[in-house]
Write a structure and sequence with these properties.
Elements (H helix, E strand, L loop, with lengths): L3 H4 L10 H29 L12 H4 L4 E2 L8 E8 L3 E4 L4 E4 L1 E7 L7 E9 L5 E4 L5 E3 L4 E6 L11 E8 L7 E10 L2 E8 L1 E8 L1
Length: about 210
Protein backbone atom coordinates (compact mmCIF):
# COMPACT_ATOMS: atom_id res chain seq x y z
CA UNK A 1 0.00 0.00 0.00
CA UNK A 2 1.31 3.45 -0.85
CA UNK A 3 1.18 6.24 1.72
CA UNK A 4 0.23 9.81 0.89
CA UNK A 5 3.82 10.96 1.13
CA UNK A 6 5.13 8.17 -1.13
CA UNK A 7 2.45 8.99 -3.72
CA UNK A 8 4.08 12.39 -4.15
CA UNK A 9 7.55 10.90 -4.77
CA UNK A 10 8.60 11.21 -8.44
CA UNK A 11 8.74 8.17 -10.71
CA UNK A 12 11.95 8.70 -12.61
CA UNK A 13 10.95 6.18 -15.32
CA UNK A 14 7.96 8.27 -16.37
CA UNK A 15 8.02 11.99 -17.11
CA UNK A 16 5.53 13.56 -14.65
CA UNK A 17 2.66 15.62 -15.92
CA UNK A 18 2.64 19.25 -14.68
CA UNK A 19 -0.76 18.70 -13.07
CA UNK A 20 0.69 15.89 -10.92
CA UNK A 21 3.28 18.26 -9.51
CA UNK A 22 0.64 20.88 -8.82
CA UNK A 23 -1.55 18.36 -6.97
CA UNK A 24 1.37 17.14 -4.85
CA UNK A 25 2.38 20.71 -4.14
CA UNK A 26 -1.09 21.62 -2.92
CA UNK A 27 -1.23 18.46 -0.83
CA UNK A 28 2.12 19.28 0.77
CA UNK A 29 0.94 22.80 1.57
CA UNK A 30 -2.17 21.38 3.26
CA UNK A 31 -0.02 19.07 5.40
CA UNK A 32 2.27 21.97 6.32
CA UNK A 33 -0.71 24.09 7.38
CA UNK A 34 -2.04 21.27 9.57
CA UNK A 35 1.38 20.81 11.16
CA UNK A 36 1.77 24.51 11.86
CA UNK A 37 -1.71 24.67 13.39
CA UNK A 38 -0.93 21.72 15.68
CA UNK A 39 2.35 23.34 16.69
CA UNK A 40 0.55 26.58 17.54
CA UNK A 41 -1.85 24.65 19.79
CA UNK A 42 0.87 22.73 21.60
CA UNK A 43 3.51 25.43 21.93
CA UNK A 44 1.81 27.32 24.83
CA UNK A 45 1.88 24.09 26.86
CA UNK A 46 5.56 23.40 26.33
CA UNK A 47 6.93 26.91 26.15
CA UNK A 48 4.72 29.18 28.25
CA UNK A 49 6.25 32.64 28.09
CA UNK A 50 6.10 34.93 31.13
CA UNK A 51 3.06 37.17 31.12
CA UNK A 52 3.45 40.87 30.72
CA UNK A 53 3.20 42.98 33.82
CA UNK A 54 -0.32 42.93 35.17
CA UNK A 55 -2.08 46.19 35.81
CA UNK A 56 -1.38 47.24 39.37
CA UNK A 57 -3.99 46.48 41.98
CA UNK A 58 -5.47 49.48 43.73
CA UNK A 59 -6.01 48.30 47.28
CA UNK A 60 -7.51 51.66 48.20
CA UNK A 61 -10.25 51.24 45.57
CA UNK A 62 -10.85 47.48 45.70
CA UNK A 63 -10.95 47.30 49.50
CA UNK A 64 -12.32 50.68 50.47
CA UNK A 65 -14.73 49.09 52.96
CA UNK A 66 -11.84 47.33 54.70
CA UNK A 67 -9.88 50.53 55.28
CA UNK A 68 -10.13 53.29 57.83
CA UNK A 69 -8.37 56.59 58.48
CA UNK A 70 -4.70 56.40 59.40
CA UNK A 71 -4.25 56.74 63.19
CA UNK A 72 -2.88 60.07 64.40
CA UNK A 73 -0.95 58.49 67.24
CA UNK A 74 2.63 57.34 66.88
CA UNK A 75 3.07 53.84 65.44
CA UNK A 76 4.82 52.31 68.44
CA UNK A 77 4.63 48.62 67.45
CA UNK A 78 5.83 47.09 64.19
CA UNK A 79 6.45 43.72 62.55
CA UNK A 80 6.93 41.99 59.25
CA UNK A 81 6.14 38.76 57.40
CA UNK A 82 7.83 36.66 54.74
CA UNK A 83 5.27 34.68 52.74
CA UNK A 84 6.45 31.90 50.39
CA UNK A 85 4.35 31.70 47.23
CA UNK A 86 4.37 29.20 44.39
CA UNK A 87 3.45 30.83 41.10
CA UNK A 88 4.94 27.79 39.32
CA UNK A 89 5.80 24.28 40.48
CA UNK A 90 8.09 21.83 38.67
CA UNK A 91 6.81 18.24 38.31
CA UNK A 92 7.78 15.03 36.50
CA UNK A 93 11.46 15.22 37.48
CA UNK A 94 11.52 18.89 36.58
CA UNK A 95 10.52 18.35 32.95
CA UNK A 96 7.05 19.90 33.28
CA UNK A 97 5.75 23.03 34.99
CA UNK A 98 2.39 23.69 36.57
CA UNK A 99 1.29 27.30 37.05
CA UNK A 100 -0.93 28.50 39.89
CA UNK A 101 -2.88 31.63 40.66
CA UNK A 102 -1.81 33.26 43.92
CA UNK A 103 -3.98 35.18 46.37
CA UNK A 104 -2.18 36.94 49.20
CA UNK A 105 -4.42 37.93 52.12
CA UNK A 106 -3.56 40.20 55.04
CA UNK A 107 -5.98 39.89 57.97
CA UNK A 108 -6.23 42.25 60.91
CA UNK A 109 -6.74 39.81 63.79
CA UNK A 110 -7.56 42.55 66.30
CA UNK A 111 -11.19 43.13 67.28
CA UNK A 112 -10.59 46.66 68.53
CA UNK A 113 -7.55 48.29 66.91
CA UNK A 114 -6.68 49.29 63.35
CA UNK A 115 -3.70 47.63 61.68
CA UNK A 116 -1.40 49.75 59.51
CA UNK A 117 0.02 47.92 56.48
CA UNK A 118 3.17 49.71 55.41
CA UNK A 119 4.39 47.51 52.56
CA UNK A 120 3.24 44.66 50.34
CA UNK A 121 5.97 43.68 47.86
CA UNK A 122 6.25 40.69 45.51
CA UNK A 123 9.62 39.09 44.65
CA UNK A 124 10.70 36.46 42.13
CA UNK A 125 12.89 33.38 42.54
CA UNK A 126 16.08 35.43 42.17
CA UNK A 127 15.00 37.87 44.90
CA UNK A 128 14.21 40.67 42.45
CA UNK A 129 11.18 42.80 43.25
CA UNK A 130 8.41 42.23 40.71
CA UNK A 131 5.68 44.51 42.10
CA UNK A 132 5.00 46.89 44.98
CA UNK A 133 1.32 47.17 45.81
CA UNK A 134 1.22 50.16 48.13
CA UNK A 135 2.14 53.74 47.34
CA UNK A 136 1.52 54.76 50.94
CA UNK A 137 0.59 52.93 54.16
CA UNK A 138 -3.06 51.99 54.68
CA UNK A 139 -4.99 51.21 57.88
CA UNK A 140 -7.22 48.13 58.13
CA UNK A 141 -10.34 48.18 60.26
CA UNK A 142 -10.57 45.64 63.09
CA UNK A 143 -11.01 42.12 61.64
CA UNK A 144 -10.79 43.48 58.08
CA UNK A 145 -8.79 41.96 55.20
CA UNK A 146 -7.06 43.12 52.03
CA UNK A 147 -5.90 40.80 49.24
CA UNK A 148 -3.59 40.72 46.24
CA UNK A 149 -4.44 38.42 43.31
CA UNK A 150 -1.88 37.16 40.79
CA UNK A 151 -3.44 35.27 37.84
CA UNK A 152 -2.22 31.91 36.62
CA UNK A 153 -0.63 33.29 33.46
CA UNK A 154 1.54 35.74 35.40
CA UNK A 155 4.57 33.50 35.96
CA UNK A 156 7.08 36.25 36.72
CA UNK A 157 7.46 35.04 40.30
CA UNK A 158 8.51 31.53 39.33
CA UNK A 159 8.98 28.56 41.65
CA UNK A 160 10.49 30.62 44.47
CA UNK A 161 8.16 33.63 44.53
CA UNK A 162 7.53 35.37 47.83
CA UNK A 163 5.94 38.40 49.47
CA UNK A 164 7.18 40.76 52.14
CA UNK A 165 4.52 42.43 54.27
CA UNK A 166 5.38 45.13 56.83
CA UNK A 167 2.85 46.31 59.38
CA UNK A 168 2.57 48.61 62.41
CA UNK A 169 0.16 49.69 65.15
CA UNK A 170 -0.16 52.40 67.76
CA UNK A 171 0.12 49.92 70.67
CA UNK A 172 0.19 46.21 71.38
CA UNK A 173 -2.09 44.36 68.99
CA UNK A 174 -2.95 40.81 68.00
CA UNK A 175 -0.43 39.64 65.41
CA UNK A 176 -1.96 39.83 61.91
CA UNK A 177 -2.58 36.68 59.87
CA UNK A 178 -0.85 36.69 56.49
CA UNK A 179 -1.11 33.80 54.03
CA UNK A 180 -1.01 32.93 50.33
CA UNK A 181 -3.53 30.65 48.60
CA UNK A 182 -2.42 28.84 45.44
CA UNK A 183 -5.00 27.36 43.03
CA UNK A 184 -4.29 25.47 39.81
CA UNK A 185 -4.55 22.15 38.04
CA UNK A 186 -3.22 19.64 35.53
CA UNK A 187 -5.64 18.00 33.09
CA UNK A 188 -8.65 16.95 35.22
CA UNK A 189 -6.83 17.26 38.55
CA UNK A 190 -7.17 20.49 40.54
CA UNK A 191 -5.12 21.60 43.51
CA UNK A 192 -5.32 24.28 46.20
CA UNK A 193 -2.92 24.83 49.07
CA UNK A 194 -2.02 27.56 51.56
CA UNK A 195 1.36 28.99 52.52
CA UNK A 196 1.48 30.66 55.92
CA UNK A 197 3.45 33.86 56.42
CA UNK A 198 6.44 33.68 58.72
CA UNK A 199 7.44 36.63 60.92
CA UNK A 200 10.68 38.23 59.80
CA UNK A 201 11.00 39.95 63.16
CA UNK A 202 9.18 39.76 66.46
CA UNK A 203 6.46 42.35 66.88
CA UNK A 204 7.91 44.93 69.24
CA UNK A 205 7.90 48.56 70.17
CA UNK A 206 10.19 50.84 68.22
Amino acid sequence: MMSRMSSCMPNWSVLPHPRDGLRCGKRAIRHMRKGLFAAMLLSPLAYAAPAAAQSKVSIEQNFADSLTAMPREELAVSGGFYVPAYSSVAISQGKLRVDFSVTLSVHNASETRPLVVKRIAYFDTAGKQVESYLKAPVALRPLATVSIFIPTDDVRGGTGANFLVDWAATSEIAEPVVEALMVGGVANAHYAFISQGRPTRTASKK
